[in-house]
Design a protein that fits this description.
The protein is α+β, with helices and mostly antiparallel strands and 125 residues long. The protein has helices spanning 3-21, 27-40, 86-99; strands spanning 45-50, 53-55, 58-60, 65-70, 74-79, 103-108, 118-122. Helix 1 packs across helix 2. It starts with a helix and ends with a strand.
């Protein structure tokens, strides 16, 4: 499967998660449920994947973590906040750049319309 096929399955799983839980919970609740649904659909999912920074040829551990990494091809960054800020979009783009991954999804579950709260980000590589 390529990134587009995986992201289609992810979007469906996001809708299922949102319809089951609704808005207003902690990110961790959405993370565990979304992970479970994606695993049921046969995808490989890693949670809280460390993102090191390579500086002057050295790998530095700084505590950044990708919420979900699906099939080693798609990053999912989960939020459950009042409103996304520009920094949240930049965060996903930076994770894409640091990891070399092409596609990321930024999702805010604290919303009345989940369809408008899924943001697709592409790494220009």
């Amino acid at each position: 499967m390529d990134e587009n096929e995986i992201s289609y399955i992810i979007r469906g799983a996001i809708f299922t998660t949102y319809n089951a839980l609704g808005p207003g919970l902690l990110e961790s609740a959405y993370e565990v449920v979304l992970c479970h649904i994606l695993l049921e659909k046969g995808l490989t999912v890693k949670r809280q994947v460390p993102v090191p920074i390579i500086f002057n040829g050295m790998k530095l551990k700084v505590g950044y973590r990708i919420d979900l990494l699906v099939n080693n091809l798609v990053i999912i960054e989960l939020k459950s906040i009042e409103m996304l800020a520009a920094v949240h979009h930049k965060q996903v783009l930076t994770y894409l750049k640091l990891s070399g991954i092409k596609l990321g999804l930024l999702v805010n579950f604290n919303t009345v319309n989940i369809a408008e709260s899924i943001h697709r980000k592409v790494n220009g590589l």
